[in-house]
Amino acid sequence: MDDHQKRNLTFFTIGLIFMLSGIEYAVILPTIWKYLQILEAPPYFLGLGLSAFSLSGLLTGPIFGLWSDRSKTTKSIILFSNVFEIAGNFMYFVGYSKWLLLCSRLVAGIGAGAGSSIFGFLTRSTRPEERAGIFAAIMAARQAGLLIGPAFNLFLRLCDFKLGPFVVNKYTSPGIFMCLLWVLLQFAVLAMYWDVPPIGSEEGAAGAVNLEMKREGEEAPLMGSDEEPVNTYRALGTDRSESSASCEMQPVNGASNPFKNFSASREFLREEVVVLLTAQFITLFNQTALETMVTPLTQRYFGFGELGNSLMYSLCGVEVILGFFFVRWLSSKVADRAVLAVGLVICCTACIWCLVFLCNPRGGYGWELSAFIIGVFLQLLGLPFVAVSQVSLFSKVTAEKTQGFSQGVRRSVGGLATILGPLWAGGLTNNLYIMLGMMLALLLMITVMTALSYDRLTEPRAVQCEHSSDSGG
C-alpha cells in the first residue's frame, strides 16, 4: 500500500473519529436532562454535566498536542485517548448517582483532547490552499454523526431490560452503545490509521526523497518547487527571500525539538491570533449556551420529549452538513477571512432574531414555533462559516512545526467557552433577555474586532524560525 492510499484511509479514519464524537453528543444530549432528573439532580447539574466534558478536553488538549509535536505521531495518542472515551461512556451507562454521571463526562472528555493532535496532523499533511476544504469535510463528518445519532435514539429509547446487575433503559443505553462504538473504533484505528509523512502536494516524490535524505543525515534543501517550504510563512514588512533562505535549513537542524526557542507570547499574542482565538471562544460560548437552552425551552413551550428533541437535532444536522459542504465549495472561491466575516454577520442576525422573538413569545403556538425554527435555522446557518474559516486561518497564522500544541491551545479556548456557555445558560433559562443580550454583545464585539483586523487576517503571514527569538521576531 503506497503513501497516497494510506493517507486516504487515515483521513477516512479521522472522519470516523469525528463522526463518533457527533453521535455521542447526539444520543446523550436529548436524554441527559431527564436522566439527571431521575437521579434527583438539581437543575444546575445539566450545565455541570455538559461543561465537565469540555473541562477535560480543555486540560488535555495542549498536552496531547505537545506530545504529538514532539513525537511526530498521532496513532498512539488516539488509541490512548479512546480508552478514556470507552471508560467514560461505561460509567455513564452504570449511572448509579448524579456524581457518577458527572464523573463519566469528565473521563470521556479526556478522550476529546486528542482532537488537537489530529488537527496538527491535518495541518502538516495538507497544503494551505486545500486545508479549509479538508477541515470542512472533517467537521461535516461530526455533523453527520449529529444527524445519525438521533436515528440511534429511535431504538435506544425502546430498551428496557437488565444486563447482569445493570439496568438498560432509554437513559442508560446511550452509554453502553457509545462504549461499544469506541471499542470498535480502536480496531479501525489499528487497521486503517498511519502516521504518513506530511507530503500531499504536487512535489510529493521530491518530498519523499528529501525525507529519506534527512533520515540518512544529509543536509539537502527542498528541491523541485518554487513554493516556500512547509515550515515557512510569508511576513509583511520583512525581507522575504532572506527569511525563506534562513528557514529552509531549519527542518534539518531543529527537527528533533520543534519547541527549541519557542515563545508562547510571540506565537499567540499577535493581533490576528488573538482575534481568531476570541472568535473561537465567542462562537462556541454562544453555540453551547443556545444548545443548553433549547431542551428546557422546547419542553416548556412546545411539549417536546426525547423523540421530539431527537428529530429536531436530526433536522439541524442536515442543515449543518449542507452548510459545511457549501463552505467547502466556497472556500475554494473566497478568502477564509471573507467567509469568517459573513459567518459573524449571520450569527449576529440570528442572535437579534432570538432576542426579539424568543424572549417573550406571543401569537400562539404556530407563530412561536415558527419563530423558534427561524432562530435555530439562522444560528446553524452561520456556524459552518465561522467554524471552518477560523480553524483554517488559525492553522495558517501559527507555526506548522508546533501545530499540535497550537491547536491544543485553540481547542482549550474553545473548551473554556463550552464550559462557561452551559453554565451561563443553565442559570438563565428563565431570563432570556439577559442571556441573549450578553451573547449579542459578544458577537458584536468580535465582529468589530474582525473588521478592524481584516487586513491582518492574511495567510500565511508570520515567519516562524527557531532562531527568530534571537532577533526578537
UniProtKB/TrEMBL annotation:
Coiled-coil-forming residues are none
Q: Which UniProt keywords apply?
A: Membrane, Transmembrane, Transmembrane helix
A GO molecular-function term, please?
Answer: transmembrane transporter activity
The segment(s) forming the Major facilitator superfamily (MFS) profile domain are 10-455
Which PROSITE patterns did the record assign? MFS
A family per Pfam: MFS_1
Protein name as annotated: Major facilitator superfamily (MFS) profile domain-containing protein
Q: Does the keyword Transmembrane helix apply?
A: yes
Tell me yes or no: is Protein biosynthesis among this UniProt entry's keywords.
Answer: no
Instruction: Give the record's GO CC terms.
Output: membrane
